[in-house]
Amino acid sequence: MQTLEGDLEVPWGCCPDKFSDSEDLCIDIPEAENKAIGYGLQNTLAILDVCNEPNIAARLCSDYIVEYEGVMYDDWYLPSLNEIRKMNIDKEYILDHGDTYWTSSQGSYNNYEYAEEVFGWVDQCGPPYNPSEGCWHVGNLGGMYKSDCLKVRAVRSF
Q1: Separation between Cα atoms, residue 91 and residue 30, nearest integer Å
Q2: Phi, psi of 60 (to 5 degrees)
Q3: Does the pTM exceed 0.70?
Q4: Cα–Cα nearest to 62, from 22, 10, 19
Q5: I need a surface site. Which of 11, 23, 80, 81 has the fewest CB within 10 A?
Q6: Could you tell me if residue 69 is left (phi over 0), alpha (psi between -120 and 50 degrees) or otherwise beta?
Q7: d(CA 72, CA 148)
Q8: Closest Cα to residue 157, out of 69, 42, 46?
Q9: Are 26 and 17 in contact (CB under 8 A)?
Q10: What is the DSSP pairing of strand 135-139 with strand 114-123?
């Protein structure tokens, strides 16, 4: 799995700002509720089928293109919750310490105003403590409001 790193923070999409006076409700996308590994692309496509906003997490990932040694890679997507959690196994893909990122997994159980987020952190792993070798972790809080702006980490499978 390859990843795109970035500092841009954008909304998940399909939901008005939680502080606005809008009477519009968030759009429910049940096809984007899967949290399992292998469903990030499906979730991303489901989001893009429904959400028309230009600068949302799924669209930034889907529109991302990398050229490397004359080959164009344009098959990027927003990872599912468990896909991005798996990134902490290989430190090359670690999320930035203390930052929060969107996943493509919408909240479920009638909680579609929220989407799943993840954050990375490091600690010293327990005794014997070695400050130069921290243990990386990826966790989530159970969802953020879809209009909140978080970082995005695009991935592609190969």
Answers
A1: 32
A2: -60, -40
A3: yes
A4: 10
A5: 23
A6: left
A7: 32
A8: 42
A9: no
A10: antiparallel
Over the stretch 72-97, which tens digit does the pLDDT of each residue have?
999 999 999 888 877 766 555 556 66
Q: What angle do CA 75, 27, 11 make, to 5 degrees?
A: 55
Integer angstrom CA distances of residue 73 from 41, 57, 83, 157: 15, 18, 19, 11
List CB contacts of 81: < 8 A, sequence separation 6 or more.
35, 103, 105, 116, 118, 140
Q: Are 136 and 122 in contact (CB under 8 A)?
A: yes
How far is the C-alpha of 139 from the C-alpha of 141, rounded, in Å?
7
Which residues have C-beta within 8 Å of that of residue 14, sequence separation ≥ 6?
Answer: 26, 27, 29, 47, 50, 51, 53, 56, 146
Mean predicted confidence (pLDDT) in 21-27: 68
Three-class DSSP category at 60: helix
Could you report the per-residue pLDDT of 94-149, keeping only the tens digit for each?
A: 566 667 888 898 886 556 677 777 766 555 565 554 545 555 556 666 678 888 88
